[in-house]
Write a structure and sequence with these properties.
The protein has 5 helices and 7 strands. The two termini are 25 Å apart. Helix 3 (85-100) links the parallel strand 4 and strand 5 (104-109). The protein is globular and about 45 Å long. It has a single domain (8-153), classed as Aminopeptidase (3-Layer(aba) Sandwich), CATH 3.40.630.30. Strands 1-2-3-4-5-7-6 form a 7-stranded mixed sheet. It is α+β, with helices and mostly antiparallel strands and 154 residues long. Bound molecules: coenzyme A.
Length: 154
Protein backbone atom coordinates (compact mmCIF):
# COMPACT_ATOMS: atom_id res chain seq x y z
CA UNK A 1 0.00 0.00 0.00
CA UNK A 2 1.39 3.42 -1.00
CA UNK A 3 0.81 5.92 1.82
CA UNK A 4 -0.09 9.09 -0.10
CA UNK A 5 -1.87 8.60 -3.39
CA UNK A 6 -2.82 11.83 -5.09
CA UNK A 7 -6.14 11.75 -6.92
CA UNK A 8 -7.09 14.87 -8.89
CA UNK A 9 -9.76 16.11 -11.27
CA UNK A 10 -8.99 15.30 -14.88
CA UNK A 11 -8.19 18.07 -17.34
CA UNK A 12 -8.59 18.17 -21.08
CA UNK A 13 -4.87 17.35 -21.40
CA UNK A 14 -5.48 14.02 -19.65
CA UNK A 15 -8.00 12.68 -22.17
CA UNK A 16 -5.48 10.90 -24.39
CA UNK A 17 -3.86 9.31 -21.34
CA UNK A 18 -7.26 8.23 -20.01
CA UNK A 19 -8.14 6.78 -23.41
CA UNK A 20 -4.85 4.85 -23.56
CA UNK A 21 -5.41 3.44 -20.08
CA UNK A 22 -9.04 2.49 -20.77
CA UNK A 23 -8.15 0.83 -24.09
CA UNK A 24 -5.78 -1.61 -22.37
CA UNK A 25 -8.63 -2.81 -20.14
CA UNK A 26 -11.26 -2.66 -22.93
CA UNK A 27 -9.05 -4.92 -25.08
CA UNK A 28 -8.96 -7.44 -22.20
CA UNK A 29 -12.77 -7.31 -22.07
CA UNK A 30 -12.73 -5.83 -18.58
CA UNK A 31 -14.44 -2.54 -19.47
CA UNK A 32 -17.11 -1.55 -21.96
CA UNK A 33 -15.86 0.61 -24.84
CA UNK A 34 -15.94 4.42 -24.67
CA UNK A 35 -15.14 6.60 -27.65
CA UNK A 36 -12.67 9.47 -27.64
CA UNK A 37 -15.40 12.09 -28.37
CA UNK A 38 -17.37 10.69 -25.42
CA UNK A 39 -14.31 11.05 -23.17
CA UNK A 40 -13.92 14.72 -24.16
CA UNK A 41 -17.62 15.24 -23.52
CA UNK A 42 -17.36 13.52 -20.11
CA UNK A 43 -13.92 14.73 -18.99
CA UNK A 44 -15.43 16.70 -16.10
CA UNK A 45 -16.71 13.39 -14.63
CA UNK A 46 -13.18 11.98 -14.38
CA UNK A 47 -10.61 11.76 -11.63
CA UNK A 48 -7.08 10.54 -12.31
CA UNK A 49 -3.85 9.42 -10.69
CA UNK A 50 -0.74 10.57 -12.53
CA UNK A 51 2.73 9.18 -11.97
CA UNK A 52 5.80 10.30 -13.89
CA UNK A 53 3.67 12.11 -16.45
CA UNK A 54 1.54 9.01 -17.14
CA UNK A 55 -2.13 8.49 -16.23
CA UNK A 56 -2.00 5.24 -14.24
CA UNK A 57 -5.50 5.35 -12.73
CA UNK A 58 -8.85 6.82 -13.62
CA UNK A 59 -12.51 6.67 -12.72
CA UNK A 60 -15.59 8.73 -13.41
CA UNK A 61 -18.73 9.72 -11.52
CA UNK A 62 -21.78 9.80 -13.78
CA UNK A 63 -25.04 11.19 -12.46
CA UNK A 64 -28.43 9.59 -13.09
CA UNK A 65 -30.94 11.17 -10.75
CA UNK A 66 -30.98 13.47 -7.72
CA UNK A 67 -30.10 10.39 -5.63
CA UNK A 68 -28.08 8.05 -7.82
CA UNK A 69 -24.59 8.20 -9.33
CA UNK A 70 -22.48 5.54 -11.03
CA UNK A 71 -18.79 4.66 -10.89
CA UNK A 72 -17.72 4.39 -14.53
CA UNK A 73 -14.53 3.69 -16.44
CA UNK A 74 -12.55 2.67 -13.37
CA UNK A 75 -9.14 1.43 -14.45
CA UNK A 76 -5.69 1.07 -12.94
CA UNK A 77 -2.66 0.37 -15.13
CA UNK A 78 -1.71 -3.31 -14.76
CA UNK A 79 1.73 -2.57 -13.29
CA UNK A 80 0.13 -0.39 -10.60
CA UNK A 81 -2.62 -2.79 -9.51
CA UNK A 82 -2.68 -4.01 -5.93
CA UNK A 83 -1.29 -0.85 -4.33
CA UNK A 84 -4.50 0.88 -3.26
CA UNK A 85 -4.91 3.06 -6.37
CA UNK A 86 -8.34 1.64 -7.22
CA UNK A 87 -9.48 2.19 -3.64
CA UNK A 88 -8.14 5.76 -3.73
CA UNK A 89 -10.09 6.58 -6.90
CA UNK A 90 -13.35 5.09 -5.59
CA UNK A 91 -12.94 6.82 -2.21
CA UNK A 92 -12.58 10.10 -4.11
CA UNK A 93 -15.72 9.33 -6.14
CA UNK A 94 -17.59 8.59 -2.90
CA UNK A 95 -16.42 11.91 -1.42
CA UNK A 96 -17.47 13.73 -4.59
CA UNK A 97 -20.87 12.00 -4.50
CA UNK A 98 -21.37 13.08 -0.90
CA UNK A 99 -20.34 16.66 -1.61
CA UNK A 100 -22.91 17.09 -4.36
CA UNK A 101 -25.67 15.46 -2.28
CA UNK A 102 -26.14 12.02 -3.80
CA UNK A 103 -27.45 9.28 -1.51
CA UNK A 104 -26.55 6.21 -3.60
CA UNK A 105 -23.56 5.19 -5.68
CA UNK A 106 -23.64 2.14 -7.96
CA UNK A 107 -21.44 0.24 -10.36
CA UNK A 108 -21.94 -2.53 -12.88
CA UNK A 109 -18.83 -4.64 -12.60
CA UNK A 110 -17.01 -7.90 -13.26
CA UNK A 111 -15.10 -7.43 -9.98
CA UNK A 112 -17.76 -7.25 -7.24
CA UNK A 113 -15.17 -8.42 -4.67
CA UNK A 114 -13.21 -5.19 -5.12
CA UNK A 115 -16.36 -3.11 -4.50
CA UNK A 116 -17.32 -5.23 -1.47
CA UNK A 117 -14.00 -4.14 0.08
CA UNK A 118 -15.29 -0.57 -0.27
CA UNK A 119 -18.58 -1.49 1.42
CA UNK A 120 -20.71 -1.72 -1.69
CA UNK A 121 -23.30 -4.54 -1.63
CA UNK A 122 -24.38 -6.72 -4.51
CA UNK A 123 -27.96 -5.89 -5.54
CA UNK A 124 -30.45 -7.06 -8.12
CA UNK A 125 -30.36 -4.87 -11.23
CA UNK A 126 -34.08 -4.33 -10.81
CA UNK A 127 -33.14 -2.10 -7.87
CA UNK A 128 -31.47 0.28 -10.34
CA UNK A 129 -34.21 1.14 -12.84
CA UNK A 130 -32.67 4.53 -13.66
CA UNK A 131 -29.58 2.81 -15.05
CA UNK A 132 -31.24 -0.22 -16.56
CA UNK A 133 -33.98 1.68 -18.38
CA UNK A 134 -32.02 4.82 -19.15
CA UNK A 135 -28.78 3.30 -20.45
CA UNK A 136 -28.58 -0.50 -20.40
CA UNK A 137 -31.45 -0.94 -22.85
CA UNK A 138 -29.22 0.62 -25.53
CA UNK A 139 -26.24 -1.64 -24.75
CA UNK A 140 -25.46 -4.51 -27.17
CA UNK A 141 -24.93 -6.79 -24.14
CA UNK A 142 -28.36 -5.99 -22.67
CA UNK A 143 -29.75 -9.51 -23.11
CA UNK A 144 -26.60 -11.32 -21.95
CA UNK A 145 -25.08 -8.89 -19.47
CA UNK A 146 -22.59 -10.61 -17.16
CA UNK A 147 -21.90 -7.57 -15.01
CA UNK A 148 -22.87 -7.58 -11.34
CA UNK A 149 -24.71 -4.57 -9.88
CA UNK A 150 -23.26 -3.18 -6.66
CA UNK A 151 -24.62 -0.32 -4.59
CA UNK A 152 -23.45 1.79 -1.67
CA UNK A 153 -25.65 4.12 0.35
CA UNK A 154 -23.67 7.23 1.15
C1 LIG B 1 -10.43 -3.54 -10.22
C2 LIG B 1 -9.30 -2.51 -10.12
C3 LIG B 1 -9.83 -1.12 -10.34
C4 LIG B 1 -8.70 -2.64 -8.70
O1 LIG B 1 -7.68 -1.65 -8.55
P1 LIG B 1 -6.43 -1.88 -7.59
O2 LIG B 1 -5.67 -0.62 -7.50
O3 LIG B 1 -5.67 -3.08 -8.04
O4 LIG B 1 -7.17 -2.22 -6.21
P2 LIG B 1 -6.66 -1.83 -4.74
O5 LIG B 1 -5.21 -2.15 -4.63
O6 LIG B 1 -7.08 -0.43 -4.43
O7 LIG B 1 -7.50 -2.86 -3.86
C5 LIG B 1 -8.39 -2.46 -2.81
C6 LIG B 1 -8.89 -3.74 -2.15
O8 LIG B 1 -9.67 -4.50 -3.10
C7 LIG B 1 -9.12 -5.81 -3.25
N1 LIG B 1 -9.22 -6.17 -4.66
C8 LIG B 1 -8.58 -5.60 -5.72
N2 LIG B 1 -8.97 -6.19 -6.87
C9 LIG B 1 -9.86 -7.15 -6.52
C10 LIG B 1 -10.59 -8.09 -7.27
N3 LIG B 1 -10.50 -8.18 -8.61
N4 LIG B 1 -11.43 -8.91 -6.60
C11 LIG B 1 -11.54 -8.84 -5.25
N5 LIG B 1 -10.87 -7.94 -4.48
C12 LIG B 1 -10.03 -7.12 -5.11
C13 LIG B 1 -7.66 -5.67 -2.81
O9 LIG B 1 -7.16 -6.90 -2.35
C14 LIG B 1 -7.77 -4.63 -1.70
O10 LIG B 1 -8.19 -5.27 -0.51
P3 LIG B 1 -7.62 -4.78 0.93
O11 LIG B 1 -8.06 -3.34 1.08
O12 LIG B 1 -8.26 -5.71 1.91
O13 LIG B 1 -6.14 -4.90 0.85
C15 LIG B 1 -8.17 -2.84 -11.14
O14 LIG B 1 -7.74 -4.19 -10.93
C16 LIG B 1 -8.57 -2.67 -12.59
O15 LIG B 1 -8.36 -1.62 -13.17
N6 LIG B 1 -9.15 -3.76 -13.19
C17 LIG B 1 -9.52 -3.75 -14.61
C18 LIG B 1 -10.69 -2.83 -14.91
C19 LIG B 1 -11.89 -3.12 -14.05
O16 LIG B 1 -12.30 -4.25 -13.84
N7 LIG B 1 -12.49 -2.02 -13.54
C20 LIG B 1 -13.70 -2.06 -12.74
C21 LIG B 1 -14.85 -1.70 -13.60
S1 LIG B 1 -16.32 -1.41 -12.67
Amino acid sequence: MISSISVRNATIDDVIGIDTLLQTQIEKGKLLPRTLPELYERVRDFFVIETGGQIVGCGALQLFTAELGEVRSLAIASSFEGHGYGRAIVERLIKESQSIGLSKLMALTYVPGFFHKLEFSTVDRDELPEKVWGVCVYCPHYNNCQEIAVLKRI
